[in-house]
Amino acid sequence: MNEGETRLMSDESELQARLDAVYMAKSNEDLATAYDAWAANYDQDLVQKLHWNAPERTAACLAKYAPVTASVLDAGCGTGLVGEALAALGFRSLEALDLSAQMLATARGKGVYGAFHQVALGPAMELPDDHFDAVIAVGVFTEGHAKPDCLAELVRATRSGGFIAFSLRPDVWADLGFRDAQDALVAAGKWVLVEETDFQEGFSAVQTRPYKIWVYRVV
Questions:
Q1: Over the Cα atoms of the chain, what is R_g?
Q2: What is the pLDDT of residues 50-61, one digit of tens each?
Q3: What is the pLDDT of residue 186?
Q4: What is the mean pLDDT of residues 111-126?
Q5: How far is Cα 173 from Cα 179, in angstroms, rounded to an integer?
Q6: What is the pLDDT of residue 7?
Q7: pLDDT of 85 strictly over 70
Q8: For the chain, which residues make up each domain, given as ranges?
Q9: What is the 3-class SS of the chain, one letter each residue?
Q10: Distance CA 55, CA 50 (A)
Q11: Residues 6+ apart with CB under 8 A from 184
Q12: pLDDT tens across 138-161, in order?
């Protein structure tokens, strides 16, 4: 094995360790620690190595319904990849929310957000009622991350007529309670489904489980 092959194997091992740390997190504290440690390498790992496209695709879905003048909360913003995608589409009123201080610091450096919230997605977030025109969440509804109980809070913080767009793997949707939570909000008259995409490739370099994008209109 030559030096280049050894370095490639080391890089892949480090990336797998970072993925394991976030997907296997047992608490918000564990998750914040894992993302703090990953912040410096996150964009390179996800975009350059894994060819992650969910930020751009989910932003494009939201843009079909929300005008570029909309105030948008990027829930679970990470390093700001979604904010960059929205800004490229013309959105200018963006706020960032994440539980990781280092992720938020990196997102701040992108220069696309006007406000920042260090908050964990959950059932009791300190967000104002009926405040945002839209909410977008990419890559945060998965194992070891935000749970379905945060959906009602995101609806609460969104104005009537506003939109909520998010990416979600169908296996997570079925197995971790998101289907039931989404359906319950429909049944309660809180939101209406406006789009559910076909299957999308996410980490196209290593894709084994695709995702879909859901868009709801808040009632």
A1: 17
A2: 888 999 999 999
A3: 98
A4: 95
A5: 5
A6: 41
A7: yes
A8: 8-218
A9: CCHHHHHHHHHHHHHHHHHHHHHCCCCHHHHHHHHHHHCCCHHHHHHHHCCECHHHHHHHHHHCCCCCCCEEEEECCCCCHHHHHHHHCCCCEEEEEECCHHHHHHHHCCCCCCEEEECCCCCCCCCCCCCEEEEEECCCCCCCCCCHHHHHHHHHCEEEEEEEEEEECHHHHHHCCHHHHHHHHHHCCCEEEEEECCCECCECCCCCCCEEEEEEEEC
A10: 13
A11: none
A12: 999 998 899 999 999 999 999 999
Q: Which fold has domain 8-218?
A: Rossmann fold (3.40.50)
Rounded Cα distance between 90 and 124, Å, is 31
- Which tokens belong to 83? 């904010």
86-93 average pLDDT score: 98
- What is the C-alpha separation between 198 and 104, in angstroms, rounded? 31
The residue among 4 and 144 whose pLDDT is bigger is: 144
- Identify residue 69 by its one-letter amino acid code: T
Q: Would you state the torsion angle of the CA atoms of residues 157, 62, 99, 31, taken in this order, to the nearest 10 degrees?
A: 130
Distance CA 90, CA 202 (A): 24
